[in-house]
Input
Amino acid sequence: MYQIVASDLDGTLLNPDHKIAPFTRDVLQRLAQKNINFVFATGRHHIDVAEIREKLAIPAYMITSNGARVHNCQGELVFQQNLSANVIRGVIALAKDDPALHIHMYRGDQWLLNNDNEQLKEFHDSFSYHLFDVNNPPVDNVAKVFFTRDDEDHEALVKWEQIFNAHFGDKANIAFSTPWCLEVMDAGVSKGHALQAVAEALGYQLTDCIAFGDGMNDAEMLAMAGKGLVMGTSHEKVKLALPNNEVIGSNADEAVAHYLEQHLLTR
Output
C-alpha cells in the first residue's frame, strides 16, 4: 500500500477547465480519511495551489514551481531553491525581443508578466499577475522564469529550449510543463527531488510514493517514485522518456481519481 500520493495538476488531476471535478474531490477527501498523505506537485505558484487545497479541505504538502518551493500541511515554507540572478537576466535578455513570447516569473508571493494577457486568467480563480520591466527584471527570490505563446506553437518554444540549454544548461533545469509552456528553474530543482524530501519528512521513502503526471517537468518524479503513472494525453516526448511506466486515461475522465479509488481505496 502506498502511503503518499503525489499528483501534477494541469492535464493530470484538474479537468480540462482547470478545476477539481466532483468525483476527484470525493476521492481525495476519502484518501485523507484513510490517512494517506496527498502531495500537490505542480509548476503552479504556491498561492494558487493553496487556494485549491483550501477548497478541498484536505491536509496536503505542496510542491510548487516544479520543486523550487515546498510547503507543509500548515502552509509553512520548508524548502526553497531560487534561480540565480545571472540565469534570470540571461534568459530574459535572450528572449525579450521576441514579440510572440510572454515572459513570466514566480517571485516570492508574486506572479510577474512582461505584458498583459487576458487569456491566462482562465487558469486561476483569484491569483493574478503584475507587470515587470524586461529591461530591469527583479532577480531576488525568483523560483522560476517561464515562457508561453498565445498560438501555443510548441516547435517555436523548442527552439528557445535549445537556445537556453546552449547558454545555461549547466546552471538551470529547463523543461516543458505543457507543450506550450517552457520553464526555467535552478539546476537540481525537480518535482522528483522535492518529493524525496517530502517523503523523508513524513518518515517514508520514495518507494512508498505513487505519482501521476503528464509533462516533461514530471519526468523525474514519475521515474523516482515507487510507481509513476503517465497520463494518456501526455505529449509523446513524456511517453518516450518513460517507456516502462504505466499509462492511464485522460484528465477529462478523472483517470487519476478512478485509479486511486480502484487501487488504494478498495483494498
User: Anything to note?
Assistant: The chain has a mean pLDDT of 94. The radius of gyration is 18 Å.
